[in-house]
Amino acid sequence: MLSLENIINGIHTWLNNTFDPTLALTCEFVLLGITAIAIFAVLGLVLVLMERKVAAIMQIRKGPNRVGPFGMFQTVADTLKLIMKEGLTPDGADKVLFNLAPFIVMIAAMLLLAPIPFAKGVQMWDINIGVLFISAVSSISVIGILMAGWASNNKYSLLGAMRSGAQIVSYELSAGLSVITIVILTGSLQLSEIVNAQQNGWWIFKGHIPVLISFVTFIIAVTAETNRAPFDLAEAESELTAGFHTEYSGMKFALFFLAEYINIFIACAIGATLFLGGWMPFHIGNWEGFNAIMDYIPSSIWFVGKTFFLIFLMMWFRWTFPRLRVDQLLNLEWKYLLPISMLNLLVVTVMAIMGWYF
Amino acid sequence: MNEIIIVASLGILTLLAEIFNFKKLILPLVVAGLAANIVVGIMEFDLASYYNDADTLRMIESDLYAKCFMMLLSIIALVWVLVNYNFFSDETNQTDHLALILFAIVGGFCMVAYTNFVMLFLGIEILSIPMYVLAGSNKRSLRSNEATLKYFLMGSFATGILLFGITLIYGSIGSFYVYDVRMKTASVDFTITPMFTIGVVMLIAAMAFKVSSAPFHFWAPDVYSGSPTSVTSFMATFVKTAAIAAFMRLFITAFPTAIESYKNVFFILIIASLFIGNIIAVFQTNAKRLLAYSSISHVGFMLLALLCLSEATSLKSLFFYTTAYSFTTLAAFLVLKIVSENASGDDDISVFNGLAQRNPLLAGTMTIALLSMAGIPPLSGFFAKYNMLFMALNHGYLWLVIIAILASLVGVYYYFKIIIAMFTRNSTDSTAIPLSLLQKSLLVLLMLIIITIGWNGWVFNLI
Amino acid sequence: MITQYLFYFLTFTAIFCALLVVFSKNPIYSALYLIVTFFATAGHYFLLNAQFLGAVHVIVYAGAIMVLFIYVIMMLNLNKEVEPHKSNIIKIAATVCGGILGLVLIAALRETELGEITEYSNNGIGLIEKLGNVLFGAYMVPFEISTVLFLSAMVGAVFLSKKNIH
After folding, report:
1. Which backbone phi and psi does B194 adopt, to 5 degrees?
2. How far apart are CA A220 and CA B269, in angstroms?
3. What would the mean pLDDT of B51-61 be, rounded to a whole number?
């Protein structure tokens, strides 16, 4: 059967048989890098198009429909336009930081791809603290955003960056706490083990209401962490023009834009891995026939399907909920989400000790 | 351990009081809790209840030394809370103040009972962080803000140096456990490496900062005078006692043999503290600064006990000195607080002018306290100094004793400055100062303690 | 082999950036260099196979503390003009004192004989499981007591930032 795992193993054995080990390793690294960049580019294109299409469906209109069939090449055209544009650097800006910032945000987003299990046996780096690695690296992007905002020498940018920083740092707490519930249930920080623990059922089904609560908190928190509506105060086009990337144009702007969508993808991928079983197919008890059919669907499809379902959810939020004010946003986190997730953590711990899950 | 658990639970109770809105009850509850803590401590004050540190995984032990100092700290804390009853009258910050003080008390307990450097560090931090905050509790006052910032910056540097010292000692010994350090250093094949020496010297420097011994005293006058008087009295009594007890414990548990190698360091600390404390105090016009410098000079006396560690009476002398000093200082600060609150927060020495006419009880207590600090017999301060000097004399430091006596003679001068102001000068404001019943009884109690504590030597022989 | 090169690279980065923290005129740059230093330190943890410590180091220092640092610096809009002028005598005195301390430290550490080095071979010394066992085993008392420390720091922060109601 043609699966991602087989292809990768095939390449691995072929390289090792053909070249000496060092060269083979180098080749693998190069291939990995190319793949990562390719995933990046493809995801960017797909997600931007998806965002526009989903928005169009929500608002009962057609969305992009001129370039290519169903407007499929619209984002490609947009990207080309952005690449061709001149990258301006404002006069009063801090040149070094201004130009460095988009790359830092980008690198942080790229590093996050490493520990994600895309399919059965397909993972770039199965680090034993996968979950922590993700929260560690995702905290770097805040620094990039703050740098961008400050270096632009623009009040709107600075305000946007400040808001973004406050928002990300606060919502990281409840995101982290809801991730920890799963870590407690699994007993491991390693993403591959978390996925394996869901072989007989996804955590969202096995873990009863407490895990459902932590799933909801997680989704709210990552929506806020990625600065998306209804928490898009960092950009807030009606009050801050475009937030921290007001002054950016051309390719540098595109990098921010891309990193934002990749962050959405990664947040949803983590959500899918932790709560929805990652690449694990959907099984129901001992319905042998049904399970066999489900197993026949490749694991990569399962993973991508779940992830895109969550992304769709986040896009849906954008057109459903009204935007929050800054104080409401921080109140929501510190007065409601954080206490709830702390209590929930306690409940999950008791549940895990007593073994009250399937 | 019981003491730590009781007081930490009280601290959490105060935080719950804020949430569940029984703030009116909390102050009596805390006083009752602290009293209960003392009762439990006295009931457990026999050999049978000493636990060694195996129960706490080699972290804390309750030997006689720890027990005695914990009791002393508990009593100081209780008296302090009673003395500063109105420090907790502000509705907005009542629970914060109480919780911070209670947590600081927990830190003090850790500092006198540790058997592991980790606990020493934690104790110091738990004691210091609430103090940093409380030093700035008068948020509208610029001097209070300055005090908190200064205390915080310098204190964190001192803690950094302490950690550096601990790291170097760990590097040369391979353990954080004080008795391991003692065993290793006592063994024949142990040669003092430079790394070890620097580690010990850094520990000494950090601890000398915490006890505000000269030449690490620069923060003390500013912080003492900037902080609210209640907080200053806590710093001068509780914090100082806990810090000097921790300093002493470091040498009786970890480096009992090493003190001889580092005695030069202690000579400098002691002589500098005695002279800088006493001589600069002469020129002070602010009562709080004066008391701050006087406390520096008292540290000079206390450090004599560390220097003469091999003498049998060194622990007794230190315990008695800290007891006498703490109660004397509490009394002095109580009077200062009442008087300066009456003069709308002014704490210049001139507020004491004519106090004898305005309120004889206050003037009497202040006189007794100052005479005790100066070391006039038959007050407890005299016995405290006598014990210290006698011990140093036995140890053969005649020259140090002469220096100490000379320095404390200077001290007599500035203590008398306040006494003279109280009895001979005339105040601009001659209205009587009203006292509540609690204040009156506390003044009398403290006066009795200061007078009687040294008489038959039971406090001296407790440890 | 590659570990050794990585070690030298990380060490060099850490020291170089730490120096830049001190010598940068612009506080923002100082803070950013400090972040790089933290990353290099985290890299050292990773080299020692203590991934958990490394990740936590990044999360806590680079991700939370330094972000707040930068936040405050940006908010106050500090720049080189605001920096108070220090007199030359203080600068010279500080340099001399620091130099003497450095001299003593270097001289002492030069003479230090290292004891026998026990190599912990691949028993997962820095892994989270081992760390958890140590924290909740041998160091349980300090671990629990440190909660009092954090609680008091939290109460202190709330207290200092609270408005007095009059």
Report:
1. -60, -35
2. 59
3. 77
Residues facing A112 on adjacent strands: none
Nearest chain A residue to C42, by CA = A136
Which residues in chain A have their CB less than 8 angstroms from residue C52's CB?
A: 129, 132, 189
Contact B391, B357 (CB under 8 A): no
Question: What size, in residues, is chain C?
Answer: 166
Q: Which residues of B touch C146 (CB under 8 A)?
A: 122
What is the model's pLDDT at position C81? Answer: 61
- The answer to whether residue B126 neighbours chain C at the CB level (below 8 Å) is yes
Q: Which two tokens stand for residue C162?
A: 């609270």
Helix (H, G, I), strand (E, B) or coil at B60: strand
Confidence band of C115 (pLDDT split at 50, 70, 90) = low
Cβ pair A97:C28 closer than 8 A:
yes
Residues in contact with B437: Cβ distance below 8 Å, sequence separation at least 6, in sequence order: none
Q: pLDDT exceeding 70 applies to what percent of chain B?
A: 98
Minimal C-alpha gap between A173 and chain C (Å): 10
Contact criterion met (CB < 8 Å) for C62 and A161? no
Give me the residue spans of the domains in chain C.
Answer: 1-83, 127-166
Q: Chains with 3 or more CB pairs closer than 8 angstroms to B?
A: C
- Between helix B314-342 and helix B437-452 the angle, nearest 10°, is 150
Contacts of B195 in chain C (CB under 8 A): 108-109, 112
Distance CA(A156)–CA(A239), nearest Å, equals 8
Average pLDDT over every residue of C107-118: 71
Q: Do C71 and A162 touch (CB under 8 A)?
A: yes
Answer whether the bond into residue A90 is a cis peptide, omega within 30°: no
Inform me whether the pLDDT recorded for C166 exceeds 60: no
Provide, as residue numbers in chain A, all residues whose Cβ is less than 8 Å from the Cβ of C32: 97, 143, 147
Alpha helix (H) residue ranges in C80-127: 88-111
Nearest CA in chain C to A136: C59
**Does the pTM of the predicted model rise above 0.90?**
no
Q: How far is C117 from chain A (nearest CA, A)?
A: 27
Query: What's the pLDDT tens digit per position in A270-325?
Result: 888 888 887 888 777 777 787 788 777 888 888 888 899 999 988 888 888 888 88
Nearest CB among C113, C137, C152 relative to B103 is that of: C152
Looking at residue C118, its amino acid is T
Per DSSP, the three-state class of A122 is strand
Instruction: Please give the structure tokens belonging to residue B226.
Output: 């900037």
**Amino acid letter for position A69:** P
Q: What is the pLDDT of residues B117-176, one digit of tens each?
A: 999 999 999 999 999 999 988 888 888 899 999 999 999 999 999 999 999 888 888 888
Cβ contacts below 8 Å, chain A against chain C, sum to 72
Residue C2, amino acid: I
pLDDT value at residue C118: 64
Euclidean distance between CA atoms B96 and B89, whole angstroms: 12
Label residue B79 by pLDDT band (50, 70, 90): very high
B404-436 as b/e, with b when 16 or more CB fall inside 10 Å? beebbebbbebbebbbebbeeeebeeeeebeee
For chain C, the 3-state helix, strand and coil shares in percent, each to the nearest 5, are 75, 0, 25
- State the pLDDT confidence band at C15, using cuts at 50, 70 and 90: very high
User: What's the CATH number of domain C1-83, 2.60.120.1440, 3.50.50.60, 1.20.120.1200, 3.40.50.720?
Assistant: 1.20.120.1200
Alpha carbon distance B246, B318 (integer Å) = 12
Inter-chain residue contact C149 with B122, CB threshold 8 Å: yes
Which member of C115, C142, C152 has the closest CB to residue B129? C152
Nearest Cα neighbor of B96 from B132, B130, B127 is B130
Best mutation site among C122, C128, C129, C130 for testing chain A: the one with the most A CBs within 10 Å?
C128
